[in-house]
Amino acid sequence: MRESIKVFAPATVANVTCGFDILGFAVDQPGDEIMLRKSNSGSVNIIQITGDEGALPLDPDKNTCSVVIKKFLSDLGLEQGIDIFLDKKMPLGSGLGSSAASSVAAIFAINELMGSPLRLDELLPYAMEGERVACGAAHADNVAPGLYGGFVLIRSYDPLDVIKLKTPEHLFATLVHPHIEVKTKDAREILRKQIYFKESVKQSGNVAGLIAGLLTSDFGLISRSMHDYIVEPIRSILIPGYNEIKEAAMEMGALGAGISGSGPSIFALSNDKDISKKIAVEMRRIYTNFNIESETYVSRISQNGPRII
Ligand code: HSE
């Protein structure tokens, strides 16, 4: 049996325009790295967190990684001391699934370290618990694609029913992360609690269209379906330059664009890698004009979840 393990877990784009809390996909990078080491302390301790500028709690009852690991050990009746070393290789409050990457890395790593007693699908509720600690809601649209890789649909939360969708081979995401922070908890609180029947019909049509388009590699259908009538009008107000970035991406040939998770990152999907790269350059240029620092990532829809490094 291993004494220690190091795991990488990827960033994810949740919602994917019309699919609030039910659609998400994984990207190749960025992502988080966690190292777990067995100890004789009999308890779960966070030894070191790097890359977070001191923002994350070191208290094992408040940190997503340690909460997830403690629950796993307690549910399985395992009395194993664990030392945690977390390297945040992606920004917090960015909309790139930062807390999800940590939760996924933690649950995947502890399961491997203890000899894989649980299957991948049994790990998902633990990773969702990490999201509850981070933002108050156990949403799965970051942790599910983070854990399974690929493009994922959460058909139901109760009971949990998660489906990995086939996607066209040539599908690329461009992400831009402007250096402002939007907390998922706040971005959820500002949403309307009720929506109109008419809006629900339009939104459902788009979710169905997007999934049908992905399954049949119908890029026109994917493009027509990437609209969000419910969340984007409210949340986009929190993101400077949002309309400019989205318009530029569409003019340059993106299939669609929207807020990544709860923002402020913005994503665009394209079926051509060169277009994705050009969109990234333009996104940065626009933020430079706004005097806002940013970084961009171009990635295919990654089929990979966490991996041992
Ligand atoms: N579905 C979640 C939300 C994703 O939009 O609040 C958060 O990354």
Keywords:
single chain, 309 residues, alpha+beta, Ribosomal Protein S5, domain 2, Alpha-Beta Plaits, 2 domains, 7-stranded mixed beta sheet, 11 strands, globular, binds L-homoserine
> How many angstroms separate the termini?
17 Å
Total E-strand runs:
11
Beta content comes to: 25-35%
Structural class: alpha+beta
DSSP helix count? 10
Tell me, what's the shape?
Answer: globular
Percent of residues in helices: 25-40%
**Succession of helices and strands:** EEEHEHHHEEEHHHHHEEHEE
Number of domain units: 2
Q: So what's the CATH class of the largest domain?
A: Alpha Beta
Mean pLDDT: 96
Question: What does the radius of gyration come to?
Answer: 19 Å
Second rung of CATH, namely the architecture of the largest domain:
2-Layer Sandwich
Low-confidence stretches: none
CATH topology of the largest domain: Ribosomal Protein S5, domain 2
Characterize the largest beta sheet: strand count, sense, and whether it forms a barrel.
7 strands, mixed
Q: Give a list of the ligands.
A: L-homoserine
